[in-house]
Structure formats: structure tokens, C-alpha cells
Model the fold of this input.
Amino acid sequence: QVQLVESGGGLVQEGSSLKLSCVASGRPGAMAWFRQAPGKEREPVAAINWSGGATDYVDSVKGRFTISRDNVKKTLSLQMNSLKPDDTAVYYCAADRRIVLGTWEYEYWGQGTQVVVSS
Done:
């Protein structure tokens, strides 16, 4: 069983930076960040394999967001730069028992942290 707790959300201005963190318990394999904007379905943002050697990003955040992990501290991070109002959403941390990437299907989910980007 893996439990996930996110933190770091908040209200920022367009163009600002924000770093989200997720603390895991148990033995998470591949991990990812998803987001859900008001009135929209949850969508993937970025993913990282167990070793941290492979990452994947959706086109809308490439070059602006960076996903990373620390397996000793069991933390997952998302550094978000050049934030836009379209990035406003609840951001969720996710984990799975598999250690590789290749699918956006994840078994374990956190409760989410709100990010609001004002223009």
C-alpha cells in the first residue's frame, strides 16, 4: 500500500514559479503528477520512473515544468516555472507498483493541492 500527501500549492501571479511536493509511504514505483481544472477531466502532467532516469511530460508543460524524485526521502517534486492561468488546477500526486513508464494508469492517489495562477 502506498499513501501520498501533496503540499506546496497556492495562489501566484502569471509568470511566477511554484514547487509542489509529495511525500510517499510504502514502496512507490513510477510516480506522476496529474491535474484537474474546474469543469474539466483530470489530465496527466508529468511522470518519472522508479530510478528517476526517465521522465515524460505532456506538451503543454514541456520546458516549463520539471519532475524529480528522491527515493531516500520518498518524495516527488514538480518545479513549475513560467506559470500561466491555464495551469490553474488541483494537482494530484500518483504512484504505481510498476517501476517503468509507458502508461498513465496509476493505482495510488493523493488528495490534491490547489494551484491558482492569476493574470
Observations:
- The longest strand covers residues 18-25.
- The mean pLDDT is 97.
- The CA atoms of residues 16 and 82 lie 6 Å apart.
- The two ends are 40 Å apart (CA to CA).
